[in-house]
Automatic annotation (TrEMBL):
<dbReference type="GO" id="GO:0071916">
    <property type="term" value="F:dipeptide transmembrane transporter activity"/>
</dbReference>
<dbReference type="GO" id="GO:0035443">
    <property type="term" value="P:tripeptide transmembrane transport"/>
</dbReference>
<feature type="transmembrane region" description="Helical">
    <location>
        <begin position="232"/>
        <end position="254"/>
    </location>
</feature>
<feature type="transmembrane region" description="Helical">
    <location>
        <begin position="294"/>
        <end position="311"/>
    </location>
</feature>
<keyword id="KW-1003">Cell membrane</keyword>
<comment type="similarity">
    <text>Belongs to the major facilitator superfamily. Proton-dependent oligopeptide transporter (POT/PTR) (TC 2.A.17) family.</text>
</comment>
<feature type="transmembrane region" description="Helical">
    <location>
        <begin position="99"/>
        <end position="116"/>
    </location>
</feature>
<dbReference type="InterPro" id="IPR018456">
    <property type="entry name" value="PTR2_symporter_CS"/>
</dbReference>
<feature type="transmembrane region" description="Helical">
    <location>
        <begin position="68"/>
        <end position="90"/>
    </location>
</feature>
<dbReference type="GO" id="GO:0015333">
    <property type="term" value="F:peptide:proton symporter activity"/>
</dbReference>
<dbReference type="GO" id="GO:0042937">
    <property type="term" value="F:tripeptide transmembrane transporter activity"/>
</dbReference>
<dbReference type="InterPro" id="IPR050171">
    <property type="entry name" value="MFS_Transporters"/>
</dbReference>
<feature type="transmembrane region" description="Helical">
    <location>
        <begin position="260"/>
        <end position="278"/>
    </location>
</feature>
<keyword id="KW-0812">Transmembrane</keyword>
<keyword id="KW-0472">Membrane</keyword>
<keyword id="KW-1133">Transmembrane helix</keyword>
<dbReference type="InterPro" id="IPR020846">
    <property type="entry name" value="MFS_dom"/>
</dbReference>
Amino acid sequence: MNNRHYSKEEIIQSTPRTGFFGHPKGLSTLFLTEFWERFSYYGMKAILAYYIYYSVSKGGFGIDQGLALQIVSIYGALVYMSGVIGGWIADRITGTRHALFYGGILIMIGHILLSLPSNFTLLLVALLFLIVGTGLLKPNISSTVGLLYEKNDPRLDSAFTIFYMSINLGALLSPLIIGWLQVNVGFHAGFAVAAVGMFVGLVIYFITNKKYLGLAGIEIPDPLSKKEKKTITIITAIIVVICAIVCVILALFGKLTLPNFANFISLLGILLPIYYFVKITTSKKTQDFERSRVFAYIPLFIAAVAFWMIQEQGSTVLAQFADTKTELSMANLTGGLIDFQIPAAWFQSLNPFFIILLAPIFSTIWVKLGRFNPPTVYKFVIGVCFAGLSYIIMVIPLSSDAGLINPFWLFASFLLVTVGELCISPIALSTTTKLAPQAFTAQMMSVWFLSNAMAQGINAQMVKIYTSISSNDYFLYSGIIAIVIGILLLIASPKIKSLMVGVK
């Protein structure tokens, strides 16, 4: 690993400054690597729940649907939690370039394991590889993009927009391809394509990274001292031993079960953000006006959790709903005109499709509104309320006596939640940076990503409710709760804006 410090000028001069739509060529390396990583991630996740709860005769494990959806939620929560650790490893041990490459290798191994006929234990091992690998790659590839540009480079916003498109293009195409393979060939073919996708991304990265990325991400920003390495090794060993002892004790008493593990992850997802907020607000490094801004951020964080809870159920609750309660036969929908069975996984492409379609429109709207552009708090209110509406709208078809519902309703639900996402997600990244105390800028960004981890941790419990009550009641009450949170945020907005101390 490289412990030498490079100046920003040295890094900039080491990279080809043009060659990719007017941007540094290194952006093309990161764009294609991220595209294939997201292709593999979203494609696998689109069929994961089905793989777990489908009967053995259909290529699955035949596990209870509620537990299957819990596993997918746990997986999502751990992916976002692992990003915090992945960022720390890059900052203190490997540098971003090595971290994202090692992460890609682990992701590829995980997909390869999924592509093999296997038992349930091997499935869990594969998911572990994917969790650790994504935690290493996801936060560090985004950081490397920023290293290619001067701080005030006018192309920087455009660069992240292009990079963001790689995410959504991968998320759009992979469920279509992998979902079709799952239906027509089998689950393992779909997982194999995800593995090949990550392999392609790694090959592109391996061939082009030295030439196009130069010195970006090579150095270790804050390397561990020998004393720190010894301390970290001891602490890690102690944690491993304690975990092993706890697992053995739980196993002896028959408590080492997936539902209990889900409960633990749900609790961890709640405690981690609380820990960060307490740490930041009580630190002597945080000035009084910065502390006020953090207090303003907390209700926005809670609203974001409420939003992500609904948005992330697209791969659990709505995935199961598409598979079991939606009319997927085009022959039935068109009166025999078209003979085609819609793969249930295809609905997972709707969110990225709408983002690609609507993001430029929303970006233009915010600019055109000028001084009438809604404050951050109002945008969060709009986002959470649209998420609530995306569930309440599902009550309409469920109120009839019809058996399977028309796919239009899922289409409409995904459209509404995407509108909400465009009001929250891009705005939140900027707001998090603005409200972060100077000493905790990076950790506040970790807190933002933990909003998703917390949401999916709570979802691990919500899916049990979904499978135990009527779909009508679940969508209605979930939607109402989200809208109530939005209304409470609106009522509190004057106080929140005053706590922001000059930040809009």
